[in-house]
Structures are given as C-alpha cells and as structure tokens.
Task: structure prediction
Amino acid sequence: MSAVQQLPEGRYGSSRAADARADRKLRIAAIVLGTLFAALVGWFGWYYVVGNTFSGEVIAFQPYDDHVQVHLEIRKDTGASGYCTIRSQDADQAEVGRADFRFDQRTDRIDKVVTLRTAGKGTTAELIGCHAD
Result:
C-alpha cells in the first residue's frame, strides 16, 4: 500500500481556496463599480432629458443689412426665467453680432421675434444656448 504524500504548503503556488477568495473579491468589486457607473449614466441621462428647464430653438430668421430678425421658440418651466444667446455670421463666417435675450414671462412656451443688431450683413442666426437663472 502506498501512502498519500502531502506537498509542502505554499511551495507550488497558492491553494484553490485562496484563488476562490480572490475571484469572489474581484466579482464583488466589479459589481459595485458597474452599479456605480450605471447610476452615473442614468443620472446624466435624466438630467439631459428632464432636468433641463430652459431650452430654445430658432424657428426662422430674416437677415437685413444691419440686423437679423430671429423667430425663437422657448420652452421652460412656468416659473423659470433666463436668457438665450444668439449670434450671427457673415458670408465669410466672421461673427458680426451676438446678444443675450432675456425671457421672464410666466408661461411654459414663448414664441417671440427678436432683433439682433449686426456690424455687417449677417447671413446666419445661430442659437448658442439658453440658460436658466
């Protein structure tokens, strides 16, 4: 009969139990980091879709020699106030006008035609952004 020979502990690498513990720790760390990442992506998505309380859109514009008339549509919370920045460029894409237009009306949708004064003939009207106060 042969005797079962025991190998010296630690001589030939770690035991399977130690490998299992390390794998378990890595899985837990991956789950925690994955959950945090998903929560962060969800929060940014919610803020982008729902949290933006003041936004606008250029519906139409009409250029003239020294100004541009811009038809804006503003969507906001009823109690919110803020401003939108519009700029105009000439045919060479040089900026010829930029201004902020304030909106304090207590309604959730505003249609307004504003006049942007320009230093030359503007060929564009671009909404740079809207910001709530």
Summary: Residues 54-132 form one domain. DSSP finds one helix and six strands in the chain. Strands lie at 54-63, 67-76, 82-89, 95-103, 109-117, 126-132.
